[in-house]
Amino acid sequence: MYIDSRTLLEGTLLTGTAVDPIRYEVDQEFEDPWNFLIGANWQPSPSWNVTVEGGVGPRQQVTAAVAYRF
């Protein structure tokens, strides 16, 4: 899996004191955009579907879903 994502966060922190507001800017991006995925999809009946997917490597994540179709 490849994710090409970059986020710029910026804002102002109000301290509530006589100090001027503090402005900040944070530039975020993934250190390594590649990640390996392992997953499975199981359909125990025509109406039910179960999906599980997990990421291994620098980014670890788990995605799970249960679906019912009528």
Helix and strand content put the structural class at: mainly beta
Q: Give me the strand/helix succession.
A: EEEEE
Number of helices: 0
Mean pLDDT: 91
How far apart are the termini? 32 Å
- Rounded to the nearest angstrom, the radius of gyration is 21 Å
> How many separate structural domains?
1
Main sheet, how many strands, which sense, barrel?
Answer: 3 strands, antiparallel
> How helical, in percent, are the residues?
under 10%
Biggest sheet: strand arrangement? 3-4-5
Query: Which regions are unreliable across 5 or more consecutive residues at pLDDT < 50?
Result: none
Compute the number of strand runs: 5
Portion of residues in beta strands equals over 45%
Shape: elongated
- How would you describe the oligomerization state of the chains in this entry? single chain
Task: Summarize the structure in words.
It is a single chain. The chain contains no helices and 5 strands. With 70 residues, the chain is mainly β. The protein has one domain. It has a 3-stranded antiparallel β-sheet with strand order 3-4-5, with no helix packed on it. A two-stranded antiparallel ribbon has the order 1-2. The two termini are 32 Å apart. The model has no long low-confidence stretch (mean pLDDT 91).
